[in-house]
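May I ask for an example protein's residues together with how it folds?

___
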Amino acid sequence: MRAAWVLLPALAALSAYYVYLPLPGAVSDPWKLMLLDATFRAAQQTCHLIHYLRLSHHLIVLNYLICTFDKLKSVSSEDIKISDAVFDGVEVRVFEPPAKGDESLKRSVVYIHGGGWALASARTSLYNNLCRIMAESLNAVVVSVEYRLVPEVRFPEQYYDAVRATKHFLQPDVLAQYSVDPDRIAVSGDSAGGNLAAAVCQQLSKEEDLPVRPKLQALIYPVLQAFDFNTPSYQQNMNMPVLPRAVMINYWIDYLNGDYALAHELLVNNHTALNVGRALSFRARLNWTSLLPPSFQKSYKPVVQAAGSAAIVERLPALLDVRAMPLLADDATLARQPRSYVLTCENDVLRDDGAMYAKRLERAGVPVTLDHFHDCFHGCMIFTVWPTDFSAGVQTRNSYIKWLDENL
């Protein structure tokens, strides 16, 4: 009995130590965020152990755990018709609101989910819930793309899946099948899905014979570059839940089929040092000292290595591939993009990716709305259902849907 009285407080102290993280004072629901992060870290560590024992790839196990947990929170709707289809070999989930009166055509959103190109699904309740609410709130047909994941496939297969599914949907006969107005279509996505959405819009803008083009693109805390892992937001939020800098670098390595041994080289920007000739032409396109407002730059300094390793880019050429890094696109490509919305969160390593893209689009003449949230964190928009219900999720989701409603 005495041992229990000693053991229980010790376990409680250890649990509190594991859960607690020093967070900025402005973060909404800090303790709930700490619990979410601790749960995710514990799951990741378990999956890495399984990987180390060579029982399975850690991302496969982690995705299995996420989907198993997700089944506990099934989402249904009597008003929205939810169906699965295949668009040019790519699985999609379609959300269709009921017809209203004599309305003939509806607006539409092609949505690409996040998860580091490796996790989550269009079928999970987190994204089911988001797409259902979008369909209801906008009275729009929402097409959620079920692209293939790492480690089953690597770049550029996720990109190809997203392009194929979107182009198939944009065919006039397919739009007619779903009663969609061809002049009122948006392409959207969050995080890695925002990366794919931006890349899809860039590709579509280059195809001259495309009969239908997106009216809008809406990017939610998108990941847009692996050129500089020391932007102010990467430095400021390097240990922030739910996406620390080291985790984002590993997602990039997995996506590009690289070696984890490269992680430190990437972290210190050795892959884009001044002696890496292939990187020089892109440097001005990611010059955050001219692209970010002073409130984002704060007192952080650029990390530019004089001498690095060109071999990294030789081993991973996709590090400078615009299809993987939409922020590297030239000005002519950016000028062809549709009216854009970019949502960023202060407490997110990817904040500056989105802000730089918005500024470059604006300089290229594209109408842009940069919607920045000072108290929010990466991934928050999908966390609106108990037990992962955050005020930040509802706040960002409502702002995003409001912009779509006003512009689509």
